[in-house]
């Protein structure tokens, strides 16, 4: 049984109308049955002639999936998950279905996802499926462990499609246990420059363009940030001059391509710097450099204690900046000359533990993507 179904109590489901309507509702909505007023129940009953309960339609319009459809969807997702974790690969149709299911959850999320610890924070993966599997091995599988991913899922690793499909499948199957933030490479132009488009064409051939577009539609709806226990701000890269408060970020329109400039692009590209005060223009990329004073002001204005971000490669997989108020987590190993990878464990009280690991493949393997530039190539 899905974890969100446990909140539905038998006595609440009285009468054939409410039972059938409960089948139409999503698990989250069904949990609200206890709060229905008497007038709401009467309205549902009077609307019975307009309801197609077997298909989840009202007046001929599809409004939601039914319980039976959700159970079938979960079964299909679980079968595919077993296949992928056993070393299999997905077909074109499976990829498109996964993207459709995941996008349904992504578009419903707020710009800032509120999370409760414990949670494991994962930095840039860069298309390294083996590193992702290593993380699940050392930190725990989904859904027993909750994960927050900070973006950059593909780039130039050996299996960008496999990495992305597995993450999206986990999001679709366990939406409350997996949070996928948008990174700088989750954008159409970036995927064409840095390998995902080509990987789709190689793996799916004539169907590659369809799979690539399905991936991009998921990117269009990924949230920008997360806040853990109302005290830790998590984002792919950094801050933006136009966004001084969480409330300002909540009101941005994130859906669609983020473009080359503006507050969303800034948050996906701006980097903290130790030798900068205030804001400084980044010479070879979108976004800015920002100093410790900017980080301190943002945290104070929003009653936060810490910022966690990714984007930049750090040799040890983990680095503290700005007097410990900003942490970089990088989760792809051996991108450059044997760098370590790391994930950040936050317990129930947000106490921090860093787990590092090295590349799981043969020691003599060559470092990956050292020639990939770090700036936003415009083509």
Automatic annotation (TrEMBL):
Pfam families for the chain: Metallophos
Recorded GO molecular functions are:
metal ion binding; protein serine/threonine phosphatase activity
Q: Which InterPro entries match?
A: Calcineurin-like_PHP (IPR004843), Metallo-depent_PP-like (IPR029052), PPA2-like (IPR047129), Ser/Thr-sp_prot-phosphatase (IPR006186)
Q: Does the keyword Zinc apply?
A: no
SUPFAM superfamilies, A to Z: Metallo-dependent phosphatases
The enzyme's E.C. designation: 3.1.3.16
Residue ranges of domain Serine/threonine specific protein phosphatases in the record: 90-361
Q: Which SMART domains match?
A: PP2Ac
Gene3D superfamilies reported for this sequence: 3.60.21.10
The protein's name is protein-serine/threonine phosphatase
Report the coiled-coil segments: none
Q: Which UniProt keywords apply?
A: Hydrolase, Manganese, Metal-binding
Origin superkingdom: Eukaryota
Q: Which gene encodes it?
A: PPH21
């Amino acid at each position: 049984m899905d974890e969100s179904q446990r909140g539905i109590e038998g006595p609440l489901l009285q009468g054939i109308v409410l039972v059938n309507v409960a089948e139409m509702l999503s698990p989250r909505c069904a949990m609200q049955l206890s709060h229905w007023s008497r007038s709401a129940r009467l309205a549902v009953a009077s609307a019975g002639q307009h309801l197609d309960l077997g298909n989840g339609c009202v007046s001929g319009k599809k409004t939601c999936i039914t319980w039976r459809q959700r159970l079938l969807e979960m079964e299909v997702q679980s079968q595919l998950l077993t296949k992928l974790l056993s070393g299999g690969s997905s077909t074109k149709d499976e990829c498109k279905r996964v993207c459709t299911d995941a996008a349904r959850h992504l578009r419903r999320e707020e710009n800032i996802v509120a999370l409760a610890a414990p949670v494991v924070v994962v930095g840039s993966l860069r298309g390294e499926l083996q590193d992702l599997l290593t993380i699940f091995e050392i930190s725990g599988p989904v859904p027993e462990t909750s994960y927050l991913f900070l973006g950059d899922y593909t780039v130039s690793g050996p299996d960008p499609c496999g990495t992305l499909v597995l993450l999206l499948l986990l999001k679709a199957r366990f939406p409350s246990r997996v949070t996928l933030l948008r990174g700088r490479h989750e954008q159409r132009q970036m995927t064409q420059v840095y390998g995902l488009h080509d990987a789709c064409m190689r793996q799916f051939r004539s169907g590659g363009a369809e799979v690539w577009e399905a991936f991009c539609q998921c990117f269009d709806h990924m949230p920008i940030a997360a806040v853990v226990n109302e005290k830790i701000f998590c984002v792919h890269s950094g801050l933006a001059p136009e966004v001084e408060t969480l409330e300002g970020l909540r009101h941005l329109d994130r859906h669609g391509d983020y473009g080359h400039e503006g507050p969303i692009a800034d948050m996906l590209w701006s980097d903290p710097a130790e030798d900068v005060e205030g804001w400084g223009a980044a010479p070879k990329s979108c976004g800015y450099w920002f100093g410790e004073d900017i980080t301190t002001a943002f945290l104070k204005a929003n009653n936060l204690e810490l910022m966690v971000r990714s984007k930049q490669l750090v040799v040890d997989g983990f680095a503290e900046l700005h007097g410990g108020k900003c942490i970089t987590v990088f989760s792809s190993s051996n991108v450059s000359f044997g760098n370590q990878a790391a994930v950040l464990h936050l317990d129930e009280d947000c106490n921090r533990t860093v787990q590092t690991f090295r590349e799981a493949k043969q020691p003599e393997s060559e470092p990956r993507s050292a020639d990939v530039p770090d700036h936003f190539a415009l083509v």
